[in-house]
Design a protein that fits this description.
The complex is a heterodimer of chains A (about 250) and B (about 290). Chain A is α/β, with parallel strands linked by helices and about 250 residues long. Helix content of chain A is about 35%, strand content about 25%. Chain A has a domain at about 90-160. Chain A is built from 9 helices and 10 strands. In chain B, helix 5 (about 70-110) crosses helix 8, helix 5 packs across helix 11 and helix 12 (about 240-250) runs antiparallel to helix 13 (about 255-290). Chain B has 13 helices and no strands. The chains are: A alpha/beta (about 250), B mainly alpha (about 290). The interface of A and B includes residues 78, 95, 106, 109 and 155 of A.
């Protein structure tokens, strides 16, 4: 990794009560790369993302965003979050706002962009994701795939430095997964830096520059997609991948 | 696609089967039977009630003291005049209660050490005024405050009564708002914060709009209740609908004016209740259909 990393984690530890969710996690995410976090449910993937966005406070270790330590208690958390986009498994769109209002909320209220300009940018993004006709709809009226694409647009509208995707296809019907993953692929081509937790192994293998296999809150194995999927070094990684193959998901 | 393209095709081709016709005949017959039974049952209940009331040993005397047409005609204009005070109280107190209740609810959800005293104060306020019987609150404020003989503080029973109502109802409404705020799923706040919104912005743009929308039915319910309780300001001597009836009763020793006042309150409450039902039904419909109407 030649360029300075966008996101760096060092010895991150996170516990919920007596459960250790993340143990000594190190991670480096270079600009314009995609990092895929894989592992069974409960392995700590989502928690890792939530810690990176300061939605969860870590117990030990440190996290840097563009070289600035964001886990310093003196850091401005709101300013940090402004630079990180997040897309959640359950979309988390605001049900009382139209698609357009969902997207323009943060640009207008947080970044002080004028209404006309914010809406123009929103419509442009919607257009690109094939959702131009849905601008005036409420989220309930959209399919899961459409809602998730709107959530992606909402995260992109503030031009984030880093995009965190938390199992964004896990709640979707199989036939809707493709349309969402296609968007992520496009974003990669545009050079967006992303970290994604996913159960879509085929997709992770395809799109990720770096793959981290988590188990029990520990990064057991990491490397390029070819290394981790093609020639896993750890017995437990092999076992996990074998189960995935048996389940027909790779 | 091509099959459903021309609806005429499918409609013309469809002839209801004998089975369907038979079912519909049966359903119609069953509906007729149900209507007949309901009518009969209503009639029997009505007659029974009438016989019980009219057949009661004290009925002639009760009729005279509670249902006297002459006193009803005399009381109605006075009661309606008094009712205008109740309506004004409802409007002013209702608005004040919504604002104060919201502020208290927000105070209770504030985080951070700076707000600690505010949180405690808000919690103590709701605990105290929800527990304190309204009638005692009214007596303390309406009778106790003038007794202090403070310079520049009103002794007007309407203003003081309104203040007491606002104090009690703000506590109820604050709890309604707080329940609403807490019913918004934490993931909504997480999504808002992830977009860089501050805690306050997340509350204002994401949490509160959803909370208020959900709490419309219980809020209207409290307003209906407030509407009736405006009648209690009469204990300070303000001439509202109840007091207007009281005056005539005191003079005539006939209780008909109370019945008139009661009916007038009911008449005032019914539109409000229907409105509440309508709003609730509309919200439910929107939620289940996911519509935008």
């Amino acid at each position: 990794m030649s360029e300075a990393p966008v996101l760096r984690m060092e010895s991150v530890r996170k516990t919920f009560g007596s459960t250790v969710v993340l143990r000594d996690v190190d991670l480096e995410v270079a600009p314009h790369t995609v990092t895929a976090l894989i592992g069974a449910s409960g392995s700590g993937k989502s928690t890792l993302l939530r810690c990176a966005n300061l939605l969860e406070e870590i117990d030990d270790g440190a996290i840097w965003l563009d070289g600035e330590e964001i886990t310093d208690p003196r850091a401005d958390q709101d300013a940090v979050r402004r630079r990180i986009g997040v897309v959640f498994q359950a979309y988390n769109l605001f049900p009382h706002m139209t698609v357009l209002e969902n997207i323009t909320l943060a640009p207008r209220r947080v970044h002080g962009v004028g209404r006309a300009e914010a809406e123009e940018r929103a419509r442009e993004l919607l257009e690109r994701l094939g959702l131009a006709a849905k601008a005036g709809e409420y989220p309930d009226r959209l399919s899961g795939g459409q809602q998730q694409r709107v959530a992606i647009v909402r995260a992109l509208a503030v031009r984030p430095r880093l995009l965190l995707l938390d199992e964004i296809t896990a709640a979707l019907d199989p036939e809707l997964v493709g349309e969402v993953l296609a968007v992520v692929r496009d974003l990669k081509d545009e050079g967006m830096t992303m970290v994604l937790a996913t159960h879509e192994m085929g997709f992770a293998r395809d799109v990720a520059d770096q793959v981290c296999f988590l188990e029990g809150g520990v990064v057991l194995e990491r490397g390029t997609a070819e290394q981790v999927f093609g020639d896993p070094q750890q017995e437990r990684t092999r076992r996990f991948l074998r189960r995935i193959v048996e389940a027909g998901r790779l | 696609m091509t099959l459903t393209e021309d609806p005429k095709d499918t409609q013309d081709a469809y002839v209801p089967s004998e089975r369907r016709l038979e079912r519909e005949r049966f359903k119609r017959a069953r509906a007729r039977r149900a209507t007949a039974i309901a009518a009969l049952s209503t009639l029997v209940t009505g007659v029974a009630l009438y016989l019980v009331v009219v057949g009661a040993p004290g009925w002639p005397r009760t009729k005279e003291t509670f249902f006297d047409g002459r006193y009803a005609r005399e009381a109605l204009p006075k009661v309606l005049e008094g009712l205008w005070l109740n309506v004004r109280l409802l409007l002013v107190c209702g608005a004040a209660v919504l604002v104060l209740g919201m502020l208290i609810a927000i105070a209770r959800t504030l985080r951070g050490p700076v707000f600690f005293p505010l949180r405690v104060l808000a919690a103590a306020y709701t605990d105290f005024f929800r527990g304190l019987p309204l009638i005692i609150n009214l007596m303390i404020v309406v009778l106790g405050v003038p007794a202090l003989r403070l310079q520049g503080v009103t002794v007007d029973p309407v203003l003081l009564g309104g203040t007491a109502l606002t104090l009690t109802y703000s506590a109820y409404v604050a709890e309604v708002f707080r329940a609403g705020i807490e019913s918004v799923h934490p993931s909504q706040r997480a999504a808002a914060r992830s977009l860089g919104l501050t805690n306050r912005q997340a509350l204002r743009y994401v949490v509160l709009p959803q909370a208020v929308r959900r709490q419309v039915p219980p809020l209207l319910n409290d307003l209906v209740s407030l509407q009736k309780d405006t009648g209690l300001v009469s204990i300070g001597g303000a001439v509202d609908a109840v007091r207007a009836a009281d005056i005539i009763v005191g003079r005539s020793l006939n209780y008909t004016p109370y019945i008139v006042a009661g009916l007038v309150f009911v008449a005032l409450t019914i539109p409000m209740t229907r409105f509440t039902d309508w709003v609730t039904a509309r919200l439910d419909r929107r939620r289940t259909q996911g519509g935008t109407a």
